[in-house]
Amino acid sequence: MPGNSSPVTGKGSKGRLGSAPLGMRGGADRRRQLGHAGEEAAAAYLRDQGYAILARNFRCRFGEVDIVARQGTTLAFIEVRTRRSTAYGLPEESIGERKRARLRRLAAYYLQRNGLCEVACRFDVVAVTTDREGRVQGLKHLTDAFA
User: Domain holding 65: CATH number?
Assistant: First the structure.
């Protein structure tokens, strides 16, 4: 496609300063859409399982957690990972120690901020796989996935 390989010269498409040309933005948009579809599927699944969704995409200085939910008297901090293919590993395998540490700090902050320090909590992972069109093909819920 003409123009897709030219460098950004200050103004990209739609006149935004620093925007990438159209052909260079597609990957990030597709990843964002894939992640959103996975989070929607995870939230629907959790509601069907009787969880109360307390927060989605909770952000603070320690990072972001996809879903905070309550199951009975336990709070679950839930990381959702979505993949179209398992060629590079399973979705749940992509959560490294740095992300786990960030989620622990974030959970401590959330509990303190909301006066819930005495509430039992755990870290869950919902792994979602989709086909090329983004339709959910599989969903796996790992409770108490890490400490």
Answer: 3.40.1350.10
The pLDDT profile of the chain, 147 residues, written as one tens digit per residue, is 434 333 333 333 343 444 444 444 567 888 888 889 999 999 999 999 999 999 999 999 999 999 999 999 999 999 999 998 888 888 899 999 999 999 999 999 999 999 999 999 999 999 999 998 888 999 999 999 998
Place of tokens 């990030």: 28
Number of domains in the chain: 1
Size of the chain, expressed as the number of residues it contains: 147
User: For residue 29, how far is the Cα from the chain centroid?
Assistant: 14
Q: Answer whether residue 23 is part of any domain.
A: no
Q: pTM value?
A: 0.79
